[in-house]
Amino acid sequence: MTEIDPQRTALVIVDLMERIVALPLAPRSGDEVAERSVELARAFRKAGAPVAVVRVERPGVAEQPPGSALLERVAEPGDIEVVKGAVGAFHGTGLDARLRERGVRTLVLTGIATNLGVESTARAAADHGYELVFVEDAMSALTEAEHRASVTLDMPRLGTVVTARDLHLAGGASAAGPVGAACGGGRPAGAHSSPSGD
Predict the structure, then answer these.
(1) What is the pLDDT, as a whole number, of residue 2?
(2) pLDDT of residue 185
């Protein structure tokens, strides 16, 4: 079990836009990623933890492609909403300042694609000094091989890889329903494992 402090942690949801969620993805569909991310966001808001919702816009075009809006159920009033023009969510967006003014030191990441928007955001976050937790079953990629490479090779070097079932908000229950076992990885300072290792 990985327990996080909601006073120091934010959930960052990457690129759950209509056209991206509709892509053929693996190892799970965009709708599954969205459903799990929305469950996590609900738990974070209930615990008083910030939720940051990220979407991308193509720079230098008069009109964005159809389906560039966030899924309706992803963002709620009070969330941090970020529009990026790069792969990751930090460059030129002000996200770092908005997180720091809320006292955030640990980020829990979900979204699409695992090896692109999510991992790029994570690498920049690590460079900014954030501790990282990756919710493996709230991510997907264009191929299962790309997803697996990220969650087994790259992300464990940056933080802790878990499933939603194993993510607990301090003083509360699991952040989402039963979905499987943790995937392993390092342990960030803002996240704590139970003595039993559950």
Answers:
(1) 87
(2) 41
Strands 184-185 and 160-162: antiparallel
Residues present in the chain in total: 198
How much is the average pLDDT of 164-178? 73
Residue with tokens 């976050």: 125
**Whole-number Å distance between alpha carbons of 112 and 30:** 8
What does the block give as tokens for 136? 């493996």
Cis check for the bond before 27: say yes or no (omega within 30 of 0): yes
Distance CA 41, CA 51 (A): 6
What pLDDT, on the 0 to 100 scale, is given for residue 1? 82
Residue with tokens 């301090």: 170
CA pair distance 119, 14, nearest whole angstrom:
10
Is the pTM higher than 0.85? The answer reads yes
Q: What is the SS3 string spanning the chain? A: CEEECCCCEEEEEECCEHHHHCCCCECCCHHHHHHHHHHHHHHHHHCCCCEEEEEECCCCCCCCCCCCCECCCCCCCCCEEEEECCCCCCCCCCHHHHHHCCCCCEEEEEEECHHHHHHHHHHHHHHCCCEEEEEEEEEEECCHHHHHHHHHHHHHHHCEEECHHHEEECCCCECCCCCCCCCEECCCCCEEECCCCC
Amino acid symbol at 26: A
| Cβ proximity of 36 and 166 under 8 Å | no
Q: What is the pLDDT at residue 174?
A: 63
